[in-house]
Amino acid sequence: MPLLDVHFFVSAVLLQKRTGGNLAEILDKLAYVIRERFKLRGKIRAISAHGRMTGSALTMIPILVAQCCSGSMRTMSDSSPRDTTGQIMMGAAILLQVIGYAVIRKIVSIEV
User: Fold this and answer.
1) Which among 17, 13, 11, 8 is positioned nearest to 35, based on CA atoms?
2) Which of 58, 57, 62, 56 is nearest to 90 (CA)?
């Protein structure tokens, strides 16, 4: 099975079989470790949720600002997409937004 907790259990049982000792004590300690891992996973999920929300907000802010600016400055927003320099700038802005979003997602994805 691909679960790390199952690997812990199998290793503990095999180690106890090889060396002897108190299986009940080993399983109690293993249960404690697994419970602590679940608690830590929950804490990490809560902390990383804040990072994911921040990343989404930072991604949406430039889009909303661009929409507000295009509504208030019609002459500039109409000529920019037709100009080669405007197209390059728009493409670079979109590319940098995607890269920034990917970096934030990578930072907040923590494996336990």
Assistant:
1) 8
2) 62
Question: Cα separation of 98 and 102, whole Å?
Answer: 6
Q: What angle do CA 56, 60, 63 make, to 5 degrees?
A: 160
Tens-digit pLDDT profile for residues 35-67: 998 898 888 888 888 888 888 888 888 888 877
- pLDDT tens-digit readout, 60-94: 888 888 778 777 766 655 666 677 887 888 889 88
Residue type, position 44, single letter:
I
Q: How is residue 25 written in tokens? A: 């004590």
Picking from 101, 106, 103, 104, the residue whose alpha carbon sits closest to that of residue 60 is 101
Residue-by-residue DSSP string for 7-28: HHHHHHHHHHHHH---HHHHHH
- Among candidates 35, 42, 33, which has minimal Cα distance to 8? 33
pTM of the entire predicted model: 0.56
